[in-house]
Write a sequence for this structure.
DNA sequence: GGACATTTGTGCGTATGTATG
DNA sequence: CCATACATACGCACAAATGTC
């Protein structure tokens, strides 16, 4: 095996084989391969993509199929196609550090982008078995569920849900809605500082809801994180599920 | 948005929406959703899956389509189905911790599985711009490329490549081939200890080569890591690219 | 054993999506 | 734009295996 797209530029080099009849259309596989090059930074913004004819040759498909892949990428805003000139890379990846002191606003702000949190909905509900275990409360105990979305420069970066024990965090939703900051929301509930205890990372296809929230073309891949934040005493203050557009973000673990 | 499959058991609860016409077949999306539940440990080994009729209802598809998803999972060994009884979970999830002291053998051994590394090929080549930057050597300087695969209980977990500066690590490949351990291979080159300086995580579809190396059904999602290991003096000793089957592994960041 | 409900397995016809040339 | 081949998805119907009463 070679990890072709990872180390070197597969899209611009030797022929890459596709997988037929595995439930994933050829045009999507090609689009994903190119998107992976962009996400990894190997195809820089402004760079010119191979011509349709060359892509068709590289992936051993009809030119119609290569065209469709480029059309999909153009619809997603990853590339821009100009008649008679070619296709060019539009987007750039955004590194997203993960660690004990992970805070969205600081991450994005540090990278020179404007950060903002957007509360979509909040409600109280009894904790499911999984939520109860993570938050260290009894199953069925009331918890606060907050659905939100976070942006950098107006582009949605992550969408997800968070759960907070009640009644301690009864005022979180309102404070978060007002400030757009999780840190400020938790502070309003008496949490001076918090740290990330653990993060689990997986990946899958975006659901239609996620696609809508992240302004993604449906069927794209999302990185999914499940994390627990605890206060200075080690008490869980937040269980979060986040979905990141794999095309726009690269998670980074330092240390 | 809801992150349905992530927070709670979507497969066994409320209806989950699929993405139509995005180049990914419905049966594969359903198979992926169930595989993710298994990988996250939310569907325990031996647990009975919902009936075909119920799955069809939940995902709003025909029973034939739900059947095909189960057939795909059965072909991958994730579930086993018995006529008149139902389908049951076969595989078990494998958490994979990532941190400064990340070592494959320890990770897998700690989880109660047998670990083993398998060298596929090794060669010397001039460093590309990316490799040179990561390893802190001059572009074009000779580096050692090692392609390998790692197993737990005989099941491929990760496949990838690593790069090492030359001439310092001229003996790495042979030592690694003999022991199947990166730690032992580095030790043979005088590296008493090493730590992981950074890890970047992204996700995309598996290439056919990766699918073959990981014994994956083609077109599945892989988590891709790029990591730099440094010695006690902070000198880079290894740049690694790894592809993990997203169905079998969940990356975990502690702290 | 019989009767019955549940669940998986199978066949067939049809419409749409995908890919080629 | 067309024609062709194949994969995907649906709907209906029925057979086969299992478990229960």
């Amino acid at each position: 095996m070679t990890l072709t797209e990872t180390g070197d530029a597969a899209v611009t080099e030797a022929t890459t084989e596709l997988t037929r009849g595995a439930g994933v259309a050829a045009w999507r596989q090609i689009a994903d391969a190119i998107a992976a090059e962009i996400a990894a930074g190997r195809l820089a913004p402004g760079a010119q993509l191979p011509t349709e004819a060359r892509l068709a040759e590289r992936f051993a498909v009809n030119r119609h199929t290569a065209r469709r892949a480029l059309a999909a990428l153009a619809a997603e805003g990853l590339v821009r196609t100009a008649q008679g000139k070619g296709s060019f890379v539009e987007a750039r990846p955004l590194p997203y550090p993960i660690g004990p002191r992970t805070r969205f606003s600081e991450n994005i702000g540090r990278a020179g982008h404007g950060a903002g949190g957007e509360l979509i909905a909040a409600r109280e509900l009894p904790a499911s078995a999984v939520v109860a275990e993570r938050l260290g409360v009894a199953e069925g105990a009331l918890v606060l569920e907050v659905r939100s979305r976070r942006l950098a420069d107006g582009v949605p970066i992550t969408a997800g849900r968070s759960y907070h024990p009640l009644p301690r965090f009864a005022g979180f939703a309102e404070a978060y809605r007002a400030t757009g900051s999780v840190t400020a929301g938790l502070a309003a509930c008496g949490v001076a500082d918090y740290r990330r205890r653990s993060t689990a990372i997986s990946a899958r296809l975006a659901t239609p809801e996620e696609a809508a929230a992240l302004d993604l073309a449906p069927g794209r891949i999302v990185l999914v994180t499940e994390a627990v934040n605890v206060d200075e005493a080690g008490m869980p203050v937040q269980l979060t599920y986040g979905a990141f557009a794999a095309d726009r973000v690269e998670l980074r673990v330092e240390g």
Remarks:
- The beta strands of chain A are 79-82, 86-89, 94-98, 115-126, 142-152, 155-165, 194-205, 221-231, 236-245, 249-254.
- The CA atoms of residues 153 and 173 of chain A lie 23 Å apart.
